[in-house]
Design a protein that fits this description.
Largest sheet: 11 strands, antiparallel
Number of strands: 13
Order of helices and strands: EEEEEEEEEEEEE
Radius of gyration: 21 Å
Helix content: under 10%
Structural class: mainly beta
Strand content: over 45%
């Protein structure tokens, strides 16, 4: 199938960047979901872990603004119109259903000191799916507000804390699988980490925690194989070396 892609990036003034894109994508069967194609068009992601053979158009527009040397912000809107094949006994039938997905995002980054960085954001995602194939949810609205703090010391020690507010509501298939029920949940999650950069950039040592306070919640993740948040506290350590 012919998949045209158009992306435009324009700087009307030095501190303002305007971006827009319109493109078509066919979700192919890929080995380990990898490809040599660019993953973005004008800053808009074009690859998702969708059902194989999903065909979609994506449209997006954004503005990125530099207010001062240490203050940045931006707005972004995108929409995907999807045609999804209906699987039957392991094979894809000729029948297709329509899905749509809209995303609005706003962000701000501020560095009040050379050792400190602050960021705030807002994201709203709305999903509508045909009930013939909805993977458990026909309508879904998710709002997310991350508040982040990062500290960088010249010695190589750094720390980060991100507190994120979530609100999600939608129409979900019941446990009996016969009808739909409306449900919602709101909660805060905290992620934190400390790290140390080895001398002469030989590597990094990181100790962190996801869902630090072990918050319980109800949340539908659109990509269950790569969850965006942890349902229970997870503590991790990582060492990377560059020799």
């Amino acid at each position: 199938q012919f998949n045209p892609k158009l992306g435009v990036t324009w700087n009307p003034v030095p501190d303002t960047t305007l971006r827009a894109a319109a493109f078509r994508v066919l979700k192919r069967t890929l080995i380990t979901n990898q490809t040599l194609e660019p993953t973005q068009v004008a800053g808009f992601n074009q690859f998702y872990d969708d059902v194989n053979s999903t065909d979609y158009w994506k449209y997006g527009a954004a503005v990125d603004q530099k207010f001062k040397t240490n203050l940045y912000g931006g707005l972004e809107f995108s929409k995907r119109d999807m045609s999804v094949p209906v699987p039957i006994s392991g094979f894809f039938a000729s029948d297709r259903v329509d899905w749509d997905e809209s995303t609005f995002r706003a962000y701000g980054n501020w560095a009040p000191h050379q050792w400190v960085a602050l960021n705030v954001g807002y994201q709203y995602v709305e999903i509508n799916r045909d009930q013939q194939l909805d993977l458990g949810v026909s309508e879904l609205k998710t709002q997310k507000v991350p508040l982040g703090f990062r500290f960088f010391h010249p010695s190589g020690l750094s720390a980060m804390v991100t507190e994120t507010y979530y609100e999600q509501k939608g129409n979900f298939i019941s446990s009996l699988g016969t009808d739909y029920v409306s449900d919602k949940d709101t909660f805060w999650l905290c992620d934190a980490a400390i790290s140390y950069r080895l001398p002469q950039r030989y590597g990094m040592i990181i100790l962190g925690a996801k869902n630090l306070f072990d918050q319980s919640f109800k949340y539908y993740d659109t990509d269950p194989f790569n969850p965006s948040i942890q349902p229970v506290r997870m503590i991790y350590a990582k060492i990377s070396l560059s020799l």
